[in-house]
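Q: Please design a sequence for this.
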């Protein structure tokens, strides 16, 4: 039996979807196949890489990818992490795909001092980690 595929989507596949991808791969072990993508490719956010390093997870080799419609059709779970991706996600015609929306603020849009910006990145990271942990307990 193949592993369930979880496809995390965001607008630019630079931050939130990368963080979710990293956490599910790290915490889910080999229980899932994990991919992430965006409506556009904005490149991997360097702060996302650093904030995940703080959590002991290396996402520095991740790439920022654009949604592949064929993956949408065979994924077991499609999970959007921002409202824009949720509203603009391509139509999924396969009725067996479970689509969820987990909305998180975009830490890349945080303003203020460096300390305030990092606090926002950590808050979003920790919120995504918590949601991934819940998924691993209740997900299937």
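A: Design:
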């Amino acid at each position: 039996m193949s592993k369930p595929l979880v496809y995390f989507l965001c607008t630019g596949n630079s931050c939130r979807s990368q963080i979710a991808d990293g956490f599910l791969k790290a915490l889910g072990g080999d229980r899932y196949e994990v991919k992430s993508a965006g409506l556009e490719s904005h490149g991997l956010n360097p702060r996302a890489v650093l904030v995940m390093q703080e959590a002991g997870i290396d996402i520095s080799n991740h790439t920022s990818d654009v949604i592949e419609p064929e993956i949408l059709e065979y994924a077991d779970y499609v999970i959007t992490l921002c409202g824009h991706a949720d509203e603009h996600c391509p139509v999924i015609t396969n009725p067996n795909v479970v689509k969820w929306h987990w909305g998180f603020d975009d830490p890349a849009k945080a303003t203020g001092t460096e300390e305030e910006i990092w606090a926002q990145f950590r808050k979003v990271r920790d919120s995504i980690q918590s949601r991934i942990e819940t998924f691993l307990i209740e997900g299937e």
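Q: Thanks. Anything notable?
A: The helical segments are 16-27, 46-54, 69-74, 83-88, 114-138. Strands lie at 5-10, 33-38, 77-80, 98-101.
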